[in-house]
Amino acid sequence: QQEKEDLQGKLKLREHLSQTAGKNEATPPPSKSIDLEMKQMQCKLKNSNNEITKQSATIKSLKNEVQEKEERVRELQAKISRMGRDFMMKRHLIEDLRSRLKSNQENEKTSNETLESLERKVKALSEDCSNKKTSIDSLKQRLNVATKEKSKYEQLYLKAKDELEKKDLTLTNLESKMIEMECAMTQLETTASQQLHGLAKQSGQALETVQKKLLLTNNKIEEFMTFVKALSRELQHSVQELRIKIKQAKKMRKVRACKKSLSQESVQLAASILNVSTIDLEEILEVEDDEETAKTKMECEKDKQWLQLIQKLLEEQFPFAAFLMDAIQEKLDEKMILVEEYSSLIKHT
C-alpha cells in the first residue's frame, strides 16, 4: 500500500510537472521516455492492486476454514460429554444388575435348603425356581447387551479421541502454513519489485511470439480436422460403393442362375404371358427383396452414426486419438471384408 501511495504521488507530480511545463514554455509535448516511465508506473500500480486483492482473498478463506474447524471441535467435545454421561448411566445399570444377581443367588440357596426339609412343597418351590431361572436368563441377556453397548461406546470414544488429535494436527499445520504464506508474501513483494523492470521489457516480445504460435497451432488444428472429416467421408463413400458393387454382383449371379435354369423359350413364353419384353422381365427378376432394402437402410444408419461419432470425437477434449484410431480402424476392417467378398463374387462369376 505504501508503494502504491508513493507511485500515485509520483504520477501526480509527473502530471503536474508536464502541465506546468506546457503552460510556461512553448516547447513540444514531453518526450517518449517520460511517457514510458508513466506507463511503467501505471503497470506497477495495477500489479500491486492485483496482488493486494489476491492476498486479502486468501486470508479471508483461511480465516473461514479456521472458524469451521473450531466449530467442528466444539461439536466433537459436546459429543464426547454426552458419551461420557451415557457411559456413566450404563455403569450404574450394570452395578444394579449385579446386586440383583447376588440377591437372586442368595434366594436360590435358601430355597434349596428349604427343599430338603419341606418335601411337600417341592412342586410349588420348583415352579418358583423355574420362574427365577428365566428371570436370571433375561438378566444375563441384558448384561450381555449392556457389555456389548459398553464396548461400542468405548470404540466410539477412542475414534472421537483420534479425530480430535487429527484436528489439532491440522490446526497446527494451518497456523504454520499461514506463517509461511506471510513470509512468502514479503519475499514475493521484494522479488516482484526487482523483476518488474525486466519483465516489462520482455512481456511485449513474449506476447507477440505466443500469439504467432497460437495462430499457427489453430491453423494446424483446423487443417487436421478437415483432413479427418474428408478421410472419414472418403472411407464411408468407398464402403458404400463396395456395397453397391457387391449387390450388383449378387444380382448378376441370381439373374444368370435364373437364366441357366430357364431356357430361352420359357423366358420368351413368360414375357408373352406378362405382355412385357425379355429385358423388362430381367429387370423384374432383379428387384430387391424386402430384407435387402432393410439391410441397406441399416447400413446407411450405421454409416451416419459412424460419421456422427467421428464428429463427436473431434469436438471432444484431448486426448481422443486412440478412440479416433479405433473408429477409423473399424471402418477400414469393414472395407477389407467387403473387398474380399467382392473379389470372391467376381471370381465365381
Automatic annotation (TrEMBL):
Return the InterPro entries for the record.
Answer: CNTLN (IPR038810)
Q: Any one Gene Ontology biological process term?
A: centriole-centriole cohesion
**Where in this chain does the entry annotate a coiled-coil region?**
38-191
Name the segments for region: Disordered.
Answer: 1-33
Bias (Basic and acidic residues) occurs at 1-17
Keywords for this protein: Coiled coil
| Superkingdom, taxonomy of origin | Eukaryota
Q: Name one GO cellular component term.
A: centriole
> In its UniProt entry, what is this protein called?
CNTLN protein
State the gene name recorded for this protein. Answer: Cntln_1
